[in-house]
Amino acid sequence: MTSQQNIQKIRQTIARNKRSDFIFSIIGLSSMVFAILVLALLILDLAMDGLPRLDWQFFTSFASTDANQAGVLAAWVGSLLVMLVTAASAIPIGIASGIYLEEYARKNWFTDLIEINVANLAAVPSIIYGMLGLGVFVYTFKLGQSIASAGFTLALLILPVVIVATREALRAIPSNIREAAYACGASKWQTTWDHVLKYSFGTILTGIIVALSRAIGETAPLIVVGAVAFIAFLPDSLLSQYTVMPIQMYRWTDVPDPEFQANAAAAGLVLVVMTLAMNAIAIYLRYQLRKNITW
User: Among 279, 272, 277, which residue's Cα sits nearest to residue 54?
Assistant: First the structure.
């Protein structure tokens, strides 16, 4: 084969690879546009049905048998309290576990087994966590059908996500950062705390908020651990009964009255806005934490 034939073959290979890249970019762009359109149509439909119900009275009223008097006060307060318990229990344990597995644990069959199980737990259906929370927190620790039980159950749900996000963030830090710290006499903990964790915190925070965004929309595990569909008072402790936004929305969708359907659409719109706001905060914080990092 002559050199001219080799050059021609290389050009054909490059042209074929460019065509493959172009086709893949078109498929990726089409998929992204389709997903955005579906989300936009969903939000538009919720807004058309529920926007007229969004007023001050809707946010400051309890559930009621009268659709025009019903509100989401107990639901959004319950969601916030459950999220506080979830965050307070899942974030410290998740970050500490991720740091240990990535920075301190020896590589052997036991840590490999833990890593495989953590990765698999992230894909377990949420109803299984609900049954686990019912057995452990409601019956074994006798916390009852309370905010604490719901928060701890959701903490178990998002814990694998926080651990995986923490490990991926730590792994992304260049190894020369660690080597430079060790060369200056820093201990392993000083290197981890002052450099590795500091530089990776933006990514860890993003993973945490994405995990909490998933938890705030969960319904199945909270039904299992005893979320109440109708409640007309605010909880006075973490052992009180509660309801949350998805449960309240689910109850209203089960009523054939069109006015309750409008209430469900309004509650769904509030839930979508809360989720998008949490993701927007994650993007903003990640940008702010990363913009001053140079290596």
Answer: 272
